[in-house]
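Go through this pair.

…
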Amino acid sequence: MTVVFFVLGLVQCALLFVLMRCGARLARAARREREEARYAPHGGWPRAAMIIPAAGNDPRMEAALRSLLQQDYPDFLPVIVTSGEDDPAVGVIRRLREDFPALRHVIAGEARDCGQKNRNSLAGVAAVGDAADIYLFCDSTHMAGPEFARCLAGPLARHEAEFSTGYHEVEPRDHGPVTLAYALSVLLMRLLQGVAAFTQPWGGAMGMTRAAFERYGVARLWASNVVDDCSLGAMLQARGVHVRLCAAALLRTTAAGHAFGVWRAWMERQVLFLKFCMPGQWLLLGVLAVLMAAPPVWACVALGGGLLGLGGGMAPFLALCWLVLLAATLSGWRRLLPTGVPLGRWLGAFFCASGLFAWVYAATIPAKTIAWRHMVYRVGRGGVLLGMRRRG
């Protein structure tokens, strides 16, 4: 059994090493894409609308929205959508409109047959109509560089793809275990995006041509679904449509004193979206959960048993070898973060993230609902919304 766990540990380290190399490739691609975005494509930049669903009073929202509104894009229509006039985000939007008169604020109304974010996005599209040739959908709490819109729209403007996606990274502002584990979880998902088999739209930064939006019936899909990106990814995958990953379309968010409950709920949603919309990838995620969690548990038992004199043989030595190899591999991951992190705390964050990942995945196996903000959604096959209720 010791040999089996050690082999699992070697496979785990090999996977982490491959993903680290993927991160280096993404960094090179991002530099190339930023250079390409400096020049207008043949025929010029198409008209683009940036549709931003917003809700709540996140303290990061105003600065993030301001960064999205300051895009260096020549023909650009920004639209922020809230569910109602009484949403706390409305006050932020009113202040922004004083500095950005082109900004449009759209009221979507309360969702009844789909997730609220889907309804907000569709209301934004309806308000834009044919005034744009490209739709860019963005989250409201991540910071964007001035070239973000050009990088995300570039493949669409050059007719290289009909759908594009970016992603985001977390800048940890402290070295707390939860903050670092959250940053590591997001980094893992970004690196998996760089593997072609796992590339799919991310709702926080995705683009599509208006023609593709209409051709593939995106409005019809979103109008009955709980989520925007995973449902779209499943549909495009089934139809063999390629989604172009734009490495330079990278948003950034900060995290400090990150709460365990917030992190757990976020991770649970990511797993559940795949369970309902892309069950094949959800099953592969289960394999990944075992691969991430099993070697640390084995090493803990083997090393603890060796220290207490309860176990002998090669197990403690092999566990120590695995731990050294893991530390060396994860040390390379630190270079992919915006800020430096001590190796010891980074290792602790990896163990914390692996444990929560396995726990959350196991909890999603019997789940039939998704809790998101103040709503609980009952979800069927393909992410179709079957019902909803407000959280108690």
